[in-house]
Amino acid sequence: MKLLFVLSLSLIASLAAKGNQWVDLFNGHTLEGWTEKTKEGSFRVEEGVIIGTARSGLGSTFLCSNKDYGDFELEFETKLVDNELNSGVQIRSKTLEPKKGEKYGAVYGPQVEVTGRNFVRNGSGNIYGQGWKTWLTPQESKKAHTFFKDGEWNHFRVVAKGDQITTWINGNEIITTTVPADRHETNPSGFIGLQIHGIKKGTGPFQVAWKNIRIREL
C-alpha cells in the first residue's frame, strides 16, 4: 500500500510538471496549428516570423490557434512594421455562428491591445472586448505608457487566471484587468488569435509581425 501511495504521488507530480511546461504555438516554419477564421490569405511565414498584411478595405482578420486555452501564461514578440497599423492578440476567444455565405462567424473575446498610433502615451497591453465593442479595461483605469517601441520587436507577457488578466510589455507590468462576470462566463476559455486590424480604403498595405509565441497552461 505504501509503495502504491508513493507511486501515485510520483505519477501525479509527473503529470503536474508536464502540464506546466511551455509549448511553442508557432513552429517557426509553417502555420500548422493555426486557422484563418475570417479573411483568408492575410498571413504568411518568412524567415521564422509570422507576417500579417492589412489590405485596403479588407477589414479585420484573425489567425487563430486550433486549441483552446483557459488559465495560462502566454509570451510572444510582435512588431508593427508599419506603425499606422493597429493590431492585437486575442485570448479566450470564440466565433459566432457563421451567417449565410460565411465560412466562419465573427471573432469575439478579450484582446490584448497592440497599437502604434501613439508612442508617447501608448495603450498597448490594455484589454479590449473584440466583438463586444467595449474596453474590458475600464476607461478610467486604462494605462498609458512609453514601454512599446516603434519599429522594434516588443516582448509581451500575459497571465490569464480566473477573471484576472495581467499584461507586461518589455518586462514592464502594464495592468491587471478584471473581466466582467458576464464576459468571463461566456469566455472562460477559447483560442489565441493574431489580429490584423482593418484599414480604410485607399490606404496600406500595412504589416505586423509575430515570433516566439509560446504558452504554459496553469
UniProtKB/TrEMBL annotation:
Ranges annotated as spanning the membrane: none
Pfam families from the UniProt entry: 3keto-disac_hyd
Every 3-keto-alpha-glucoside-1,2-lyase/3-keto-2-hydroxy-glucal hydratase domain range: 21-216
Record keyword Phosphoprotein present: no
UniProt keyword Transferase present: no
Annotated signal peptide: 1-19
Molecular function GO terms recorded: hydrolase activity
Keyword field: Signal
Protein name: DUF1080 domain-containing protein
